[in-house]
Design brief:
Helices cover 54% and strands 3% of the residues. The chain has 8 helices and 2 strands. The radius of gyration is 14 Å and the shape is globular. It has 155 residues and is an all-alpha fold. It has a two-stranded antiparallel ribbon.
């Protein structure tokens, strides 16, 4: 979970700001709109390299997954790491998914995953991890999603 620790270290007091999660679409909107980069967490990480992708966090969210399990997980992991750094409450299954996502992204490139068979074990694991993170980012696990205007939790 080295990346998660690094993200929370970037904004030491950000962990107290929100107890809820923003969706992957919320973070993706920040990647695409230069005038909509409101959170300090996003400003701190958006131009940082994203693992072995050769892209930044912002650029990762601009890549259409097109069925590539690397990009599917990458989108959810960017959102989940951003949410965690902002202070979203994590439960055990989410903490495990964050840690495993971190390991997988540190191990594989997008091209390596694209070359794997659709039913391959590693590809299936990336999809499974992304589903957990997607559920958390969408408030189906944990305290729920934030209201984009206030940062207050709620479903």
């Amino acid at each position: 979970m080295a990346m998660i620790i690094a993200l929370s270290a970037v904004m030491p007091d950000a962990r107290a700001e929100a107890q809820c999660q923003f969706t992957q679409g919320y973070w993706q909107n920040r990647a695409q709109n230069a005038n909509d980069l409101s959170t300090e967490v996003w400003m701190a990480i958006r131009d940082q390299p994203f693992y072995l992708s050769s892209l930044s966090y912002r650029q990762v969210l601009q890549v259409a997954p097109k069925g590539n399990a690397y990009w599917i997980l990458a989108h959810q992991l960017v959102a989940a790491q951003s949410n965690y750094a902002l202070g979203a409450e994590s439960v055990d299954i989410v903490s495990a998914a964050l840690a495993r996502g971190d390991q997988l992204m540190a191990q594989y490139t997008p091209d390596q995953i694209a070359a794997m068979p659709k039913n391959g074990e590693v590809r299936q694991e990336l999809i499974a991890v992304s589903r957990v993170l997607d559920d958390w980012n969408n408030g189906l696990i944990g305290t729920g999603t934030c209201d984009a205007g206030t940062g207050a939790g709620g479903n």
